[in-house]
Hints:
The protein folds into two domains: about 1-150 and about 335-355, NAD(P)-binding Rossmann-like Domain (Rossmann fold); about 155-330 and about 365-380, Dihydrodipicolinate Reductase, domain 2 (2-Layer Sandwich). It has a nine-stranded mixed beta sheet with strand order 14-13-12-11-7-10-9-8-15, covered by helices on one side. The chain is globular. Strand 13 (about 310-315) and strand 14 form a beta hairpin. By secondary structure, it is α/β, with parallel strands linked by helices. The chain has helices at about 1-10, 35-45, 65-70, 80-90, 105-110, 125-140, 155-165, 195-200, 200-215, 245-250, 330-350, 355-375, and strands spanning about 25-30, 50-55, 75-80, 95, 115-120, 145, 170-180, 225-230, 255-260, 265-275, 285-290, 290-295, 310-315, 320-325, 380.
Amino acid sequence: MQGKNTERLNQLDKTTEEVVIDSSKKLKVGIIGTGWVAEAHVNTYKQMPDVEIVAGADLIEGKADEFFKKWEVENVRTYKSHKELLDNEELDAVSVCTYNSTHAECAIYALEKGINVLLEKPMCVTLEEAIEIRRAEKKSGKIVSVGFQPRFDANMQMIKKIVESGELGEIYYIQTGGGRRRGIPTPFGTTFIQEDTAGIGALGDIGCYSLDMVLNAIGYPKPLTVTGYTSNFFGTNKKYVKKPEYAEVFGVDDFAAAFVRLEGDIILDFRIAWAMHLDTPGDTIILGKKGGLRIPSTPCWNGSVGGPLKIYHDIAGNLVETVIPSIENKDIDKLWYVKIRSFLDNIKSGGEAPVPTSQIIYNQAIIDGIVKSSKLKKEIEIVIPEI
């Protein structure tokens, strides 16, 4: 699938319009949740001649109608809940763009109705929810693809190519994470910071991306144990939030760190932040027995890399550093296009999900393990049943 996605990116270097798409059969699509992340979905779907957006749902009265009016999408039937939409529409696919805490129930209900799901990140809030999504997916025979568009960035794909080339040798240690000096996401209110809607904070917002960057590169080994820590010193302090009342409802993590043991005797040293007294918690480092790879951090974890990659290795007894120039990402919308196009293409072909739950369940298991370990203040074992 990586080769097909790279080919799609190369095609898009020309223009989106030049990519040939068979529009003889329209895919009927619905959008559940019409907040800001849904804007990227509707904008992308509108570029695809084989897609018909037929329905949308939002819990807030009139919000879905205003959303589709703003985006000039006509003849869309709107509903007040995901169940109402899914009970009344025959769809090929649905984008789930709701609160983190409702990802699981929306995805599972769609699968029970026989509908393919493009599920925004994070996959959900808990490992238990991820297991139920995976079970529902397998039972339905449909696909769930999780919304990790950074995976399609050319620099991210280069990281994976370097690891798979064997240049680093057997991987034994990874340091990763990232974050923002000040970056608690409250421009659209409190849904990202309240426990009942978000469930998890920086861990689910940007931590899942950082984990996917390295886990995808090394083949997504199973997590075995985790020692985790979370805090919210900034979010609960009126000095550091946009409005004093936000501190009163802040109920998630704004910083997290963990020490994770992965299958294959690999150690993962992880940290992520929405806010901290530092510009970065450090570059991502992948250490192998033949070489090491440094991936420069970004100011806010923007889905790519912060500069050229650098491989540290030995050649003929000499310590050598090989610089891999970063590939400029001029259009972030291109990643969204490839993410959604890949999902739709696999629906048409009967292929597998581009970002499968079989992998992301491990991502979710680590996040869940960090939260649970932090509460228990000890290392815990991660147990994922065979599904």
